[in-house]
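ok trying again, last paste got cut off:
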Amino acid sequence: MKKFKNFTIDEYLGVLSRREPVPGGGSVAALTAALGTGLICMVTNYSLNKGKSEEIENQLKEILQKSYEYQARLLELVDLDSEAYMKVVKTRKENPEEYQKALEEASAIPREICQLCYAAVDLIPFIVKEGNKNLIHDAQIASEMLLSAYNSALVLSNQ
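nice, full thing came through this time. structure:
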């Protein structure tokens, strides 16, 4: 089956809207966080090579690298969350021990989403201070998306 991360936006929304167990909230939280990191990347890319000091340029490059790494992992979690939840669905009625194990494994993914959101939000103050001032709103939107993804994943991590 094609990975959700490789769907077009229209395809993803179509399958999300169906009466099927996946994708669901965890997948959406991961995707939302990936979009937030995409905005961090955009703002950072527009902020590079603008005559800032070498120290600031190096920090921006580091932020860019971290943002791309977080984004790649979050895109993996879009699918991993769905795979983990399908194990929960399959074991729910068959085997109570396997079901508990599947629940524990599935709840680890939202916790990782929370961790990545937290790490990504931590990058934003520097790009707000030293980045392209024309993109402050994009940095703010990135922060809001990451906060939303964090809170959404937090709901799922407590199941």
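cool. The two ends are 28 Å apart (CA to CA). The mean pLDDT is 96.
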